[in-house]
């Protein structure tokens, strides 16, 4: 069996194991075994991929396999990975693993929760390994549908409203996406839905001008593209901890990945026509998200609007259409995925103890829960781009690559987007100073305990990943850059 198919098969076996599990320990055992296997396999795949490339492997996609599913429409179960896909699979595996431990004590309906969580992960892994447009769309839908129940049943606050808003907006984006995918297929006069093969065909320019905005908006809704981002803060704020981690850390990356892999790669002429308009919208996302985070008082809303800003930066970098900025976009997906998962994990752990996320009611936590407080500081420093952590590498690559465009419009957009660095520093340092330092004024909080072993394991894994990407980025940036090259060379400037 192809190694990539195991990324779908293992979660399917996990679903079977969870269904057969009869008590909480068996449920936890299935999740730990399955998520550990996925993480080890992602690490093995990364090492194997780099070894093959260093050994001279030339194909645009490696570990390729294809089985016909529906011959009349040329729909195939077609898999393959390049450096971008490998990086996303590794990110997904890390967050599924750490999310399992972040949900260790979740109640009620623990078994049912983990079943939906696992189904969500099937969609995510399947999306990143697929090279067939329809199969990719199918896995995309599988990833979206469980979010409604995960937020609506196990969430907090306005959970029913948030779950319905998220589902309606993302399903609306999916409608655009399906129309766009069928437009690409019939417009190219194709006999295959394989992305690599479709890129070799020419879709008439007038059709690209129609279908490019549909596909870009369809994926952009999930990537928090302004003004279609409004589902994101509510969804994040209401979701349980591990769902927020997977949602912000991985699910939103499907949007950026799809915009780059499908919209820009398959419709370069459409990208050149519509690119400037969407670049303005993404620049607004970057700055608006950061400014909105400043005025929030709920820890989850602060991080949710921060995610709007940082995911906007991904789409911004993609639309700059240079090799360096596109490499930075993928690095930003990795960096944001790791550090926002760390943030949401820590916020969930703090909320589980204090029963509030209002920063006006939190202070002096460093004395009470030093481990969680130090973790929060590290996540904050990564978010504001401290050198040595993942955020710095990603943002510097994006802004350097974006400024390579010689025209005034692109450079003005780049300068405006760099303002987000300053704004991010303001809200991160403000929150850190407010909730962690000073004297604790709530006597009930003085009785609280620090992180348990399962929480420490989850936090440490994410901190190591954030620091590892920041201190040794070249192996992953080289892997990504080589895979970005054929897509960027396809674009029309």
What would you note in describing this structure?
By secondary structure, this protein is mostly helical. The chain has one domain. Helices cover 75% and strands 3% of the residues. The chain contains 19 helices and two strands. It has helices spanning 6-20, 24-54, 83-102, 110-129, 133-154, 159-187, 195-198, 205-222, 231-238, 241-266, 268-294, 299-320, 323-354, 365-368, 370-383, 390-402, 408-436, 453-471, 474-488, and strands at 62-70, 75-81. A two-stranded antiparallel sheet has the order 1-2. A hairpin with a 4-residue loop joins strand 1 and strand 2 (75-81). Helix 5 (133-154) packs antiparallel against helix 10 and helix 10 packs parallel to helix 12 (299-320). The longest helix is centred in the last third of the chain and has 32 residues, at 323-354. The radius of gyration is 21 Å and the shape is globular. The mean pLDDT is 85. GO terms for molecular function: NADH dehydrogenase (ubiquinone) activity; NADH dehydrogenase activity; ubiquinone binding. It comes from Candidatus Avibacteroides avistercoris. InterPro entries: NADH_Q_OxRdtase_chainM/4, NADH_UbQ_OxRdtase, ND/Mrp_TM.
């Amino acid at each position: 069996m192809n190694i990539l198919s195991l990324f779908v098969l293992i979660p399917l076996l996990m679903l079977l194991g969870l269904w057969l599990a009869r008590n909480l320990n068996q449920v936890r055992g299935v999740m730990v075994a399955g998520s550990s296997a996925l993480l080890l396999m992602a690490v093995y795949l990364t090492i194997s991929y780099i070894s093959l490339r260093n050994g001279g492997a030339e194909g645009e996609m490696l570990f390729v396999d294809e089985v016909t599913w529906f011959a009349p429409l040329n729909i195939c179960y077609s898999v393959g990975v390049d450096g971008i896909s490998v990086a996303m699979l590794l990110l997904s595996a890390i967050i599924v693993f750490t999310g399992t431990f972040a949900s260790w004590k979740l109640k009620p309906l623990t078994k049912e929760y983990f079943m939906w969580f696992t189904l969500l992960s099937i969609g995510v892994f399947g999306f990143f390994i697929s090279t067939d447009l329809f199969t990719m769309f199918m896995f995309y839908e599988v990833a979206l549908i469980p979010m409604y129940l995960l937020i609506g049943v196990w969430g907090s606050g306005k959970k029913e409203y948030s779950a319905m808003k998220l589902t309606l907006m993302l399903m609306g984006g999916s409608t655009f996406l399906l129309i766009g995918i069928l437009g690409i297929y019939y417009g190219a006069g194709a006999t295959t839905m394989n992305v690599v093969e479709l890129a070799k065909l020419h879709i008439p320019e007038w059709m690209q001008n129609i279908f490019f905005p549909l596909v870009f908006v369809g994926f952009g809704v999930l990537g928090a593209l302004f003004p279609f981002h409004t589902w994101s803060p509510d969804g994040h704020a209401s979701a349980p901890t591990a769902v927020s981690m997977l949602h912000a850390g991985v699910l939103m990356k499907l949007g950026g990945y799809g915009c780059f892999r499908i919209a820009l790669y398959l419709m370069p002429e459409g990208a050149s026509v519509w690119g400037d308009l969407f670049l303005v919208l993404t620049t607004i996302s970057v700055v608006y998200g950061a400014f909105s985070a400043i005025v929030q008082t709920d820890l989850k809303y602060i991080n949710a609007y921060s995610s709007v800003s940082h995911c906007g930066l991904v789409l911004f970098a993609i639309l700059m259409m240079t090799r360096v900025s596109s490499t930075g976009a993928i690095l930003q997906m990795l960096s944001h995925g790791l550090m926002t998962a760390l943030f949401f994990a820590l916020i969930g752990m703090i909320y589980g103890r204090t029963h509030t996320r209002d920063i006006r009611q939190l202070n002096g936590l460093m004395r009470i829960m030093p481990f969680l407080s130090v973790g929060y500081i590290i996540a904050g420093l990564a978010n504001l781009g401290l050198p040595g952590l993942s955020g710095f590498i990603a943002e510097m690559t994006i802004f350097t690559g974006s400024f390579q465009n010689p025209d005034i419009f692109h450079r003005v957009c780049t300068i405006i987007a760099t303002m987000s660095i300053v704004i991010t520093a303001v809200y991160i340092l403000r929150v850190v100073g407010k909730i962690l330092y000073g004297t604790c004024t709530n006597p009930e909080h003085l009785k609280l305990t620090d992180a348990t072993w399962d929480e420490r394991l989850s936090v440490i894994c994410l901190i190591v990943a954030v620091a590892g990407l920041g201190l040794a980025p070249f192996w992953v940036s080289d892997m990504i850059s080589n895979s970005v090259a054929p897509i960027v060379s396809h674009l029309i400037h």
